[in-house]
Fold this protein.
Amino acid sequence: MTLEQLRIFVAVAEREHVTRAAEALNLTQSATSAAVAALENRYQARLFDRVGRRIVLTDAGRIFLTEARAVLARAEAAEIVLADLAGLKRGSLKLAGSQTVANYWLPSLAHSFRRDYPGIELGMVIANTEAVATMIHDGSADLGFVEGDVDDPALAVEPVGEDELLLVTALDHPWIAKPPNSARDLRGARWIFREPGSGTRSNFEAVLSSLGVTPGSLDIALELPSNESVRSAVEAGAGVAVMSRLVAEGALKAGSLVSIPFALPRRRFFSLRHKERYLTRAAREFLALATGQAS
């Protein structure tokens, strides 16, 4: 049994299709089929049932899939350790960032890191805080950077920066002349919110809770999946919103948004890493860069 056979088996099992697996692995269909057949013949175990033009895992195949994935994960971890021994001349680093962090805070860090370590392949996925935490927990990313609270005992959570939240409106909103000063004022406005799982949303909901206001008591006109869509909706007059100064800065300078005086606490950006996974030199260096401690 070889690692290549395991990779082929996992690819076929995940797609339930030999041709699609072959295309994903850049192999011929015959080579892919032969690798699966070699496993089945050597161990006298049927891993797939052929149902029409599809293939589906047998009970033995489902059990073997779990073990095959575990072996491949260990092999990948071993490769990472060996690459690490070569220093920062080669390797890869997978980042995941929540929207505000990834779009407005991380890019300059990523640029500095790539300038200093051009041999390290750097990738980044953007999602909300909840999804980023899941990626770090599952091992699909090495480091996460978020602005929301994360409660997962498997993750190490460390502050790496700060951000300012602002209450913003379009140019013709009555709050410009008379800012809100009560829960009743907040309930009387139309709001634009980020989606559940967003760090910006959870931060603002904590503020609302301290004021005795539930999100359900507000007139939420729209729930949108990105900072940019929220900003555009507010500029169009669809409602008011709370967003990061990083997100609002350009529109404030252009005069298409107005910041309304309202007490909102500063919030912190956090790094996430799995406590039990090996932290590569590349990851350690990126964390040092994020905290201003890089050499």
User: Anything to note?
Assistant: The longest strand covers residues 155-163. The mean pLDDT is 90. The chain has three domains: 3-85, 91-160+268-290, 165-265.
